[in-house]
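Record pair follows.
FIRST:
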Amino acid sequence: MGASHPEELFEAGADRVRYVRRMFGEISGRYDLVNRVMTLGRDQSWRRLAARELVRPGDRVVDVGCGTGDLAFACLDAGADAVIGVDFARPMLSLAQAKAARRTARAGAGRSAWLLADGTRLPLPDASVDAWCSAFVVRNIPDLDAALAEARRVLRPQGRLAILEVPRMERGWVRPFARVHFRRVVPLVGRAISGHATAYRYLPVSVDHFLAPSELTGRLRAAGFRVRAVRMLMLGTVALHVAERVAE
């Protein structure tokens, strides 16, 4: 299920977790290149923005769904003392570890650790990190509420959260053009670069089944977070939510 019809992955009983894990493992080698092409090179600046909004000097940060590590490294560059990258696709973690090894010679590069784990079951103690972040991940988590509950659990009181994501677009003049881009252009370019038949057909479907920015704001509030800022990027096709853990 899901190999030829991504819509089926959002039906009751579908094993979306298994599909997404395999898919990201298979596209890991070209993941960074596809991101650069799809976003015209802007994805790295969005990660740097998220890190600047989130990180305070000396923070311990967990990056959930860290992929090849770019957001984690942006957090280190923004002043984090240590970053824990978590992903459930082993090939992605291997690439992140290789990047980290290349950074070790840099003065003040910070400390990084890489864990193979699920974002809804983090192998971290309660109240053990200052900040939690993710980039283009949460729409792929079937149980978003469980992931947000885990984020709240591992964050210290007044800990901070940042989510960078492609939201479902609300009505507006950009929406028809964005849908054509996601439905037509993205699958063609993604397949041409990655060689993967369905990964970039899954992407627009996952966006259609995700939340609009206002809905994600509501879910964060319901999960015990105070939303400090919502920044719309790239004509509203990308959203950055920044929030703070509300004290008990």
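SECOND:
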Amino acid sequence: MINTLYLPELREMLELSDVDGLREFCTALHPARTAEFMEGLTATEAWSVLQAADPATRVEIFGYLDREKQIEVFETCDPESVSTLIADMPADDRVDLLNAVDEEVARNLLSLVPADKRRDIQRLQAYPEGTAGAVMTTEVARLPESLTVREALQELSRIAENLETIYYIYIVDENNHLRGAVSARRLVTHLNKPKMPITELMERNLVTVEATDDQEAVAAKVADYDFLAIPVVDHEQHLVGIITHDDVIDVLQREATEDAYLAGAVGPLEEGYLSIPWFEFTRHRAPWLAILFGGAIITILALKSYHETIDKVAWLVLFLPLIVSCGGNSGSQSATLIIRALTTKEITPASWWAVVWRELLIGLALGLFLGAIGYAIGCFVAPSFAAALIIPITLILVVTCGTMVGSLLPLLFARLGWDPALMSAPFVTVIVDILGIVVYMNVALLMLRELS
């Protein structure tokens, strides 16, 4: 059976030029499973296997190969045959891959692609990275508004093979202005009224996005409305493409991955963990660690400025890790919650006043809770019950400062148009650590002065 094939058998078929066997291999299973069996093949071998498949199957299987192998096929295999694959691929997928390969290779491949496909690729490449235009596909099911139900279904059956999705059919006027949309299901259910104009069936109040809109905002809109696809228009309402749900999933995954890296103070990575050389990983991590290292140096300088107080009251040092960790942890919690709320659009920078009051109350409550525990421990270490009050007072102030800093800094970054995830937990922790030391030492100085 085909599903028991291993690499040696695949390579044997390649050596024997067993086209029939390779064709059966390509068609017997789901394209994703076929791609899995090809994982151990080189790019050249994988391309030779795909050559045995029909163009549609070839595109499907190729789409499931890992990204590195796809790029290697583009860069190392016969340009003439690869260019035919490019012409058959979904518009957005081929643009993404051509942007990822060597520039000279991309230019060479592009020159071999049919002129109409080449113009489409160049048009999509003109959109800036991160915009709706950069992730949309131009292969849209569009019909003129003058058609009847019967004519629309006839036209749809003619063009459907070359389209990524036909669930939504977009209705345009003679100048390609978007007028409405109708589902394929709605058209089919009105087969008993073949002469009915499709304008009577279409939905006119469409939710659209512009090609220059940020892709993350577009993805959020598709998720909010639970669309399978969303039309993309230009500033004059010409229909230029659609963004499908699978592209939205890719965008959300990339954004979530980037935020996860930033939350750990790591520069965004374009490839998988094992695909990146160790020195490249070092390059991504070193700048962020250097910034955090600089923050730690400021912490040392803050401590140094209070060395006389520490020398006189040595027991204060015992509680220093507890103070700074409580402040840093509370700040990190708040930063994580606010960054998440900003990402899901639950709050905006304009909500800062509500956030201030909420985090102030939370900070005070958490500070009182931790302060009570800290005082109980301090009573066993401090020279007196009164001196032990330094611990709870400091914890209340530091935890409250932590929640305020952790919540307001991401809001400030969002207000400035920066990614709030940049103000990640490690950076908030460094800032709150410095504040914690300053607050702790000043509270100690004031309390000890009053008690002396």
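COMMENT: The radius of gyration is 31 Å.
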